[in-house]
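The authors assume throughout that readers already know how a fold can be written as discrete tokens. What matters is that the chain and its backbone geometry are given together, residue for residue. A single example would do more here than another paragraph of explanation. For illustration, here is how one protein appears when written out as sequence plus structure tokens.
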Amino acid sequence: MNEVDLQLHKSSMEKGGYGLNDDRFERLKQWHGVLFQIASASHYLSQLKDRGSTPDILKDTYADLSLFSSFILQYSKSYTSSGKGQVVLDAKKVFAAGSNALTAHERILKIRHKYVAHNDNSNLILANLGVKEMNDRFVIKHFLTLAIPLGELDDFKLALDATYAYAVISLNKQLDKLGEKLGKIVLLNEV
């Protein structure tokens, strides 16, 4: 971020009467990433669900793939390695064993690992090379079929909701501990 953008960011916070980066609240900063990732994942999933099943038009396919990939990546960031001082959620603590939400969570991470973040074999993409032989030449054409699992989006929402609920409970525990330590109630002011 350049200095102009940074100054604009800081000045808007200061105008609201907020002090910046108070060390007493350092532990709460760990949750910024998780909360942003959950909110972003929710946005992308909602956008994809609202689009529904789109006609077989390439630009719609790219838009759907973009929303789907963004959902998968943002959701997965909360559960995969992160930067120094950032929270990484433990699925064993978030999900009840054998729950539909856990199954959906595992599917999301599998899609991330095999398709969205890496080029592994996946049942979500079928690539074929078509060859047409003519008298004087061969004509090669690439055929690509994407299979965005629209039928699984409601299950993915279960995993997202469980992640959100866990994050809220965990953050509230942090707020309560801080309140006890500081002798005042600590509240989040929603954006």
Q: What stands out?
A: The longest helix spans residues 153-182. The chain has a mean pLDDT of 87. Strands lie at 125-133, 138-146.
